[in-house]
Structures are given as structure tokens and as C-alpha cells.
Specification:
By secondary structure, the chain is of the alpha+beta class. It has helices spanning about 15-25, 85-95, 120-130, 130-140, 150-155, and strands at about 5-10, 30, 35, 50-55, 60-65, 75-80, 100, 105-110, 115-120.
Length: about 160
């Protein structure tokens, strides 16, 4: 049964490659049966891959090969919560190391232009505390690309830098 709400991610032409990559990197992720374009359309040719159902960390999505009409922006991103530095490193390095690019504050972009936030729970928990803990944690994060768990934990404690 298809979910009532599914995230549709637009790709130029590489939805199947992207979905397979995500399924290889993230837990509770898989790729469903590919659907092919029945007719030519402005962004696709009859017989080519059109729609690829996939799941990332339990969230149902479809990849739509629609052509270069709508490029990705940071206005949409997948946010992946992590529990350890090793997990943060693994996801970050997989995305950036597979033709992606680092950005700031835990954000990176995959080679298809989709934006990802690799966000340690230690950071989101610190921000949720508010007050001085949130200020110190946020201030520490603002100087990072990939989030450093130890530096966030140090900021939470108020250790001098």
C-alpha cells in the first residue's frame, strides 16, 4: 500500500542511481519497482526510467526523472539524525565522497544536488534546552561544516575554547 503522503524528489535523469545510493548508505532504506515513461514528455522519453519509489530511513519517497527544469535548492533537505561521531562521519563522508560537496553547519549536497543535514542529536538536544546551552552550542556549530560531537559537548559544558 502506498503511503498517503510521499516526498517527491525531482531529478534530471538519475533518480534510480540516486535511490540506489541512498539505500546503500542509510539504514531502513530500499528501492522499489521502477516505473518507465509510457510516452514522451517534456522531461523524459518513452521507455526511460520515470519514477523510482524509494525509502530513506523509513521515509517513503519517489524520485521523478523530469529533466533539468527544476534544480534543487537548500529550500528542501533531508535531515538525518545521528547518535555518534562515527555515524555522522559515515553519512557525511558517503555523501561528500560520492561526488557531493560540503556546506556549513552540518549541511552537504549530494552529486545530484539534493541537500542533506547530517545532524547529531547532541546538537538538537542542546538547542532545545534554550538559554546559554543553546547559545554556546549554536555558536560552536556556526564554525563547522561537518558537526564535531566533542566540540558540541564541550560547548554544552561551557568549556573555554
Amino acid at each position: 500500500m502506498t503511503a498517503k503522503n510521499t516526498i517527491c524528489v525531482w531529478y534530471d535523469r538519475d533518480a534510480e542511481e540516486a535511490a540506489n545510493f541512498y539505500a546503500s548508505v542509510f539504514p531502513d532504506s530500499h528501492v522499489g519497482p521502477v516505473q518507465y515513461a509510457p510516452l514522451d514528455s517534456p522531461g523524459n522519453t518513452a521507455g526511460n526510467v520515470m519514477v523510482v519509489p524509494f525509502t530513506v530511513c523509513g521515509v517513503e519517497c519517489i524520485g521523478l526523472n523530469g529533466g533539468p527544469i527544476f534544480p534543487h535548492t537548500e529550500a528542501f533537505s533531508f535531515q538525518i539524525a545521528t547518535d555518534t561521531q562515527e555515524e555522522t562521519d559515515r553519512y557525511w563522508n558517503a555523501i561528500v565522497g560520492n561526488g557531493g560537496a560540503p556546506s556549513e553547519c552540518g549541511w552537504c549536497k549530494d552529486k545530484w544536488g539534493v541537500n542533506w543535514q547530517i545532524t547529531p542529536r547532541v546538537l538538537t538536544d542542546a538547542l532545545a534546552q534554550g538559554g546559554a546551552v543553546a547559545e554556546r552550542s549554536f555558536g560552536a556549530m556556526m564554525h563547522m561544516q561537518k558537526i564535531d560531537h566533542a566540540a558540541i559537548e564541550s560547548a554544552i559544558r561551557g568549556d573555554a575554547s
